[in-house]
Design a protein that fits this description.
The chain is α/β, with parallel strands linked by helices. 41% of the residues lie in helices and 14% in strands. It has helices at residues 16-20, 51-55, 67-75, 88-91, 98-107, 116-127, 141-150, 164-175, 189-194, 209-219, 250-255, 272-285, 314-328, 334-337, 361-370, 390-399, 408-425, 444-450, 469-477, 514-547, 549-552, 554-572, and strands at residues 4-6, 26-30, 37-41, 61-63, 80-84, 111-114, 135-136, 180-185, 205-208, 266-270, 292-296, 429-434, 439-442, 481-487, 492-501, 505-512. The chain is elongated, with a radius of gyration of 40 Å.
Length: 573
Amino acid sequence: MELIYTIDARCRDCYKCVRECPVKAIRIKNVIGSEAQKAEVMKERCVHDGRCVLVCPQQAKKVRNDVDKVKELISSGRQVVASLAPSFAAGFPLDKPGRVISALRKLGFASVQETAFGAELVAAEHKKLPADRTFLSSACPSVVSLVEKHFPDLISYLSPIVSPMTAHARIIKSMNPGAAVVFIGPCIAKKDEAEEEQFTGTIDAVLGFGETWDWMQEEITDLEHLPAEYCEEFDGPRAGNGKLFPLDGGMLRTAGMSTDGLDDSVMVISGLKSCMDFLNHLQQHKACKAKLVELLACPGGCVSGPVSVSEEDVFIKKQRILDYFHENVSHEDDRKTFSFKNIELYRSNSNRQIPLPRPSEEELNEIFARTGKTNPEARLNCGSCGYATCRDKAIAVYQGFAEMKMCIPYMRERAESVSNRVIAAMPNGMIIVNRDLKILEINDVAREMLGVSGENLKGGDLSRVMDPANFLYVAASGLPLNRIMNYEQKDLITREIIFPLGSEEIAGILIDITEDSKQKEQQDILKNETINRAEEVIAKQMQVAQEIAGLLGETTADTKVLLTKLIKLVKNK
């Protein structure tokens, strides 16, 4: 299963994930045999910042759940150690952060240790980097992926140092050979990092705070009142300033470097869009006064990770981290107590950019033509498709990331065009009005029928062309109506079928039945004349019968019966 996947049945073609994804790692594909589309994450472009997961209004984007994998590790009999990210203090909706530690023990972890200690080793190593050039911190896996996949010519700026997660996992395994390490944090990208080939065997599984919290709620009845045997203190080496690592500037503070915002030797940038702006600047100018730039994909730092459970704002979360730091800071430097000289803290970075085809101007113009945008003025750059400009979207179509019908103005125009053609081609009159009975559409048949062929009627009152009573009834009742109307001044008789179109519009179909009515009227006249003539014949027959009754006998009576039956038959018809 992909790390971030889409539940197709929930995807509603809103393109919000496309709009929100800074690296445009979302592909929109037409569903075969259907008018529907689905959004899928392109792993080769994705930096796993989790923005699409957070913003999807239908909750169609999901992160792979690895709880079962961890349960299998625990049930296997191996010693399973939890490496808990320092942002845990603000990542769970619990009054006391220590409850998270005790809950993990209750779930079956043999040991719970703080990743913050690995962060201290990583920060110290960053401080040793040469001061004659600019380095970009490599602690955030989303930023590392961003550089490797989208800014590969800046890879040389990335510091060659592992993340706190990897450093801490190696510490744990150096102290506990054979142990399985499960990292637990607020970051989706950590799952991707753990699966990199160079880290094979380092981290056995990664859980987000969200899936961990769900597991806790399933297994533990009262998280706030666990028995004392489930200690709320960390095992293993204790961290000091490393507890501040999840805040922007936390790495600099942990390394003992300046955190002064006006110090041009260091720089802190958080939020993926801001990171991209800086990388674009660096790519263009190839120069930066800062010797170390701390780049964090999440605004405010890891404390705002995408799979955090707490719904508090970043300011409250920051305060919770600071409170936990002040209450639990270790004044002893465990880096001196334990020996970690043999821990490998370096990594490699590689170009993972996927070359993409670029369309020629002629090819772009062909795509524009297919969406009715040959005229530059028709390129609205509205962004509703998820791309900043029509040109960007056309390039995405060429590259196979987008579909023609993602363009909402084009699809609306296309739908209106089809609708207008249907209305225009109807053999009957068609009128569409809004709830205020203002004319929205009227076809030529209705115009001719009502004697208003040359007038501009759109936006005008319906009462200008016909009696609006039937439309008023439908607007008020919401019920369809089928009625015959006689417009004597127009020498017009119509059958009007009027019905609501949704909640805002009303449609009326006008069928001209004037000729049919006239024919029926003529038939009625002919029928009445026939009846009258037959009655006259009967009267005359009876008069003659009285005069020659003796001669005709019963034949007269039979004739009267037959003619009377004929009259009744004609009247019934």
